[in-house]
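sry for the spam today, last one i promise. struct tokens for design, 386 residues
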């Protein structure tokens, strides 16, 4: 099913594909020297956070020659398959529920916003793999009872994070998640190691409230870029502020735009509305009806089941297994961090930056289906794996 978009429509190029190709050519010309590359490239935004991706792209160009674009698509397909396996494996390990695993597999088949990008000469699919790999290693560390597996899983998660930070600049929320995970695991735990659900609820509320309040601070440089203190980042801030000053919520979708904001509260409200559109919008005026139906078939069950699972994890209803509760909490935190990160910047018209969240939405929905079906026919309860 993942092959269908490529087989039907062929290889596609995004707005960034040609820039990546040019940068990869320069990197090849300087024998993959990062310092020489950065000295030769002219840029508004530094390409340093793309160095690992550009190195991969350069390697594919050397190996595949004139067929390098096909090589990128093959690379995308391989990592998309591995991403699916990581999600299905995690769901099965924590639930032993085959219905939940089957749902997740079917959900990937209807996740058009995920499969769409496999045929593009872009880094979104491979970056999504890094995101899921990092998350999988992080929660594996939490679930390891012995010291050595915890250390190894932590080192592997840190390594995946390091690669991601130089793969795409959108890896910043992953770094924030890693810091939160390491610093808050104990404060959010009960004495026996299970999740303190009351504290977890407060944590999510404080995280959301922090974004709401920070948006008011962010409104100052969005209204007047002279208020931004770091000169090196001012060109990018000016690009973001231009969109805010025009009231743009989702680029190229004027039906989502606001009147030009004037007050700080109006600028902050723009960021809040961006967050809502980024996370929850799955229909658009120019979508083909079939596109809309497919998106509805994916997102509505994902939101409902994932929301139900999170509610159970946070204390509304019978508790789930501790390992599932922890995984749901950190998945929700990561989804919020990515949403807030992009809401403070730009939302692309095709929601491409939301792609790394698709596997986590499927993961949470799988736990939701498990929570609904965990009672067996004899009245017992399916036990989650430790």
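last one done:
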């Amino acid at each position: 099913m993942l092959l269908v978009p490529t087989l039907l429509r062929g290889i596609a190029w995004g707005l960034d594909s040609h820039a990546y190709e040019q940068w990869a050519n320069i990197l090849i010309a300087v024998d993959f020297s990062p310092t020489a590359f950065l000295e030769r490239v002219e840029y508004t935004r530094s390409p340093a956070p793309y160095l690992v991706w550009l190195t991969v792209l350069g390697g594919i160009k050397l190996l595949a020659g004139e067929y390098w674009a096909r090589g990128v698509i093959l690379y995308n397909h391989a990592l998309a398959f591995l991403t699916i396996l990581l999600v299905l494996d995690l769901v099965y390990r924590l639930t032993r529920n085959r219905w939940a695993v089957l749902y997740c597999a079917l959900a990937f088949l209807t996740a058009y916003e995920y499969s769409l990008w496999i045929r593009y000469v872009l880094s979104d699919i491979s970056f999504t793999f890094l995101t899921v790999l990092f998350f999988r290693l992080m929660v594996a560390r939490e679930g390891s009872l012995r010291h050595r597996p915890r250390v190894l899983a932590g080192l592997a998660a840190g390594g995946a994070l390091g690669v991601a930070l130089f793969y795409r600049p959108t890896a910043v929320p992953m770094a924030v998640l890693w810091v939160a995970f390491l610093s808050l695991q104990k404060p959010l735990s009960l004495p026996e190691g299970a999740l303190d659900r009351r504290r977890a609820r407060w944590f999510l509320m404080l995280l959301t409230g922090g974004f709401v309040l920070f948006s008011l601070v962010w409104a100052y440089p969005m209204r007047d870029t002279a208020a931004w203190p770091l000169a090196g980042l001012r060109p990018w801030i000016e690009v973001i502020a231009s969109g805010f000053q025009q009231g743009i919520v989702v680029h190229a979708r004027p039906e989502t735009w606001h009147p030009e904001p004037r007050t700080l509260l109006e600028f902050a409200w723009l960021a809040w509305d961006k967050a809502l559109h980024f996370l929850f919008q799955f229909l658009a005026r120019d979508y083909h009806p079939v596109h809309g139906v497919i998106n509805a078939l994916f997102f509505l069950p994902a939101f409902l089941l994932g929301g139900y699972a999170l509610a159970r994890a946070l204390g509304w209803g019978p508790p789930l297994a501790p390992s599932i509760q922890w995984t749901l909490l950190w998945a929700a935190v990561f989804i919020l961090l990515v949403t807030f990160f992009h809401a403070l910047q730009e939302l692309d018209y095709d929601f491409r930056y939301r792609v790394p969240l698709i596997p986590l939405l499927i993961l949470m929905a799988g736990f939701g289906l498990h929570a609904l079906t965990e009672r067996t026919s004899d009245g017992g309860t399916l036990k989650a794996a430790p």
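Residues 173 and 337 are 6 Å apart (CA to CA). ok im logging off now
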